[in-house]
């Protein structure tokens, strides 16, 4: 008699036990979140460092604050032209160093005396022009700096090219005519092309850097 062989019934899955695929998916999501968070934290700190470095790069050394020393007003007679005229002048000296300010105050009587002597050599016609006022300011600056022991470096002449020096006798040109000595001297004293003067030859502003006129009245 044939026996009925029944297939083994499959056991029902326990709903409380997660499938392996679900576990892998969960671990994958968690790992992705960790990577995203780590990348975000790294970007944040990197951005902060870059921002700090940028702020340090754009820092600029602040310029020195100028100092101003006002002198007592001047009233002087000018050189006579058509009639007697006098000048009322207010002067303020501009500088940067505290040491220079102290020297100006110590030597102010001598500075005023030098300025008065300079002003009495001027005429109203000279001082009425902008060029005349500019020249006066430069002269006052120069003599005031000289009183406190500061002078501009003298300009040194350019080194002449020996090949361009004038001969002892007049030189004969290509056309057969003689070139006068004066023209040869001018050619020798002309600046040499491509020659750059020494840095020491340029005038450097030291001490009193500017003279400001706070009042300028001619009557």
Tally of separate helices: 6
Main beta-sheet annotation: 4 strands, antiparallel
Please give the share of residues in helix: 40-55%
The Rg value, from CA coordinates, equals 44 Å
How many beta-strand elements? 6
Low-confidence stretches: 153-182, 195-204
Structural class: alpha+beta
Helix and strand pattern: HEEEHHHHEEHE
Summarize model confidence as the mean pLDDT.
73
Percent of residues in β-strands: 5-15%
| Basic shape | rod-shaped
The separation of the N and C termini measures 152 Å
Secondary-structure map:
Layout: H1 20-57, E1 67-70, E2 74-77, E3 86-95, H2 98-106, H3 108-119, H4 124-127, H5 130-147, E4 171-172, E5 178-179, H6 181-189, E6 210-218
Antiparallel strand pairs: 1-3, 2-3, 3-6, 4-5
How would you explain this protein's 3D organization?
The relative contact order is 0.13. The model is unreliable at 153-182 and 195-204 (pLDDT under 50). The chain has 219 residues and is an alpha+beta fold. It contains six helices and six strands; from the N terminus they run αβββααααββαβ. The termini are far apart. Helix 3 (108-119) runs antiparallel to helix 5 (130-147). The radius of gyration is 44 Å and the shape is rod-shaped. Strands 1, 2, 3 and 6 form a four-stranded antiparallel beta sheet that branches. A two-stranded antiparallel sheet has the order 4-5.
